Amino acid sequence: MNLNLTKPIVFFDLETTGLDVTKDHILELSYIKVMPDGMEQSCTMRFHPVSALGETVHIPEKSTEIHGIHDEDVADCPVFADVAEELYDKVFKDADWAGFNSNKFDVPMLVEHLLKAGVKVDLGETRLIDVQNIYHKLEKRTLEAAYKFYCDKDLTNAHSADADTRATYEVLKAQLDHYPEDLKNDVASLSEFSAMAKTLDFAGRVAVNEEGKEYFTFGKHKGKTVEEIVAKDPGFFGWVMRGDFPLNTKQVIKRLEMKYRK
Which ranges in the chain belong to alpha helices (H)? Predict the structure, then answer.
């Protein structure tokens, strides 16, 4: 079943130097941009990882074992920050986003890199579909197993961004065929269904409870509302701003601090 779209949607996958959103670097980005008329645009890009001081970052051997990318493979590739604004404007801006485990990793990692590059990211109208969350809610398996289960194909070159991106796109279309009573063929419904929890930042450090109150999901104030901590421990917010948290998380917490400060 083809997707019922009202605007473009970008399926994407990242390969990185590691799993730390604030410290690691994007090495490869592969995307398939699907238009409402069904036309597709696809591309795979690689990037040379550099530190804040402009020094080359070594790709850890453990990461290379997963995705197969070595230092020499990206030595002559562009730095992400140099192409970030064009990439966002031409591919991701004004489109919905989708991926496999993307709400927990790919989206936070991409947004962090865009913000560090000085790109003004506005996701106010962007719906996020995490195909893994749909799969885990209904079948609870890996991408390779999902591809075999829904598409009856073996996923070769797993952990290659291009192969994973294409597989994710095909799995979502097959899920629509497989669960016609559970899934609605529109991005808003798929985005809502694939969300595991209602969070305000991409790293999931601030969530919303059943009463509509924002609360922290980490640290000494885990489970406590932001409004409560503004009154009882205002210094906590300064600690967050100085800490090693994603820029998006800091932006959300700062906005909430200002909202409840009297």
Answer: 61-67, 80-87, 107-116, 131-138, 143-151, 161-178, 187-194, 226-232, 235-242, 247-260
